[in-house]
Amino acid sequence: MHILVTGAAGMIGRKLTEQLAKDGALHDRAVEKLTLTDVFPAPPPLGIAAAVDIITQDLATPGVADNLIAGRPDVIFHTAGIVSAEAELDFDKGYRSNLDGMRALLEAIRHAGGFRPKLIFTSSCAAFGGPFPYLIDDEFHLTPHTSYGTQKAICELLLADYTRRGFVDGIGLRLPAICVRPGKPNKAASGFFSSIIREPLAGHEALLPVDESILHTHASPRAAVGFLIHAAGLPPDRLGPRINLTMPGVSCTVAEQIAALGRIAGDKVAARIRREPDPLVIRIVDGWPHRFDAARARALGFEAERSFDDIIRIHIEDELGGVIR
Length: 325
Fold this sequence. Notes:
Distance between the termini: 42 Å
Number of strands: 14
Helix content: 40-55%
CATH class of the largest domain: Alpha Beta
Low-confidence stretches: none
CATH architecture of the largest domain: 3-Layer(aba) Sandwich
Largest sheet: 7 strands, parallel
């Protein structure tokens, strides 16, 4: 099996690649070739027997997608793109990274002809737009309030149409906030959800740019990788014509996140969070949906954590070696 991972230098791409290398197979089919691409060099996976190609190019650049698809990958994990606040601040870059790259990939597949790869696309709950009901299901309308959400919504529609026309076997996963993200803070508007946990656990101060009453839905990086791998094994007849669906997660307020941090790491660690409002982040986050009905995804076998305490424990185990500073 030949697997292509776009956005392979990003957090989800790296975690996915590590899991594929560890397993050596995807749904009982051996990984014979792994192609990793991003605008930054992707780290080579360790301990994998498969051939590995690392391609450092912009997917939206003419000809790049055609060259990638020339290898006729069996499965494509399309995780490439820029984050929400960056897409809002840089309009051109947002559409180039989040939309033009997707369109180039789909067109390369269509014009190659003769094969129909499985294409798993990471969408976002930002594709939804308010006013919101108490609980948002997969049938709720896509009227996003940000450029990032608009780009994701357009990609969902493209994926559905190219799947309907038989060019790809697609599935779009609307991810909740992936938390706790390892590494350093990034430009994602949702980044504070991770930083208010990650930084205090590492002994550092974290900034909280929104009110503690903000409610959102979260899943761990481990769960996100599980979503992608599970999606790769779903046959089209189980998914049906609505191929974009919302992933499960833990819905909680920022105050409940902080309370979970205090329970697990103590009040001294939780006190490392400093309140500093950010108008841009507040405006973006206020336009996001908060609580989801992911019954359809759960019925299809997608699983996530059941409590935010579990999400924190996974971060401590996977990223900190079990040590809290």
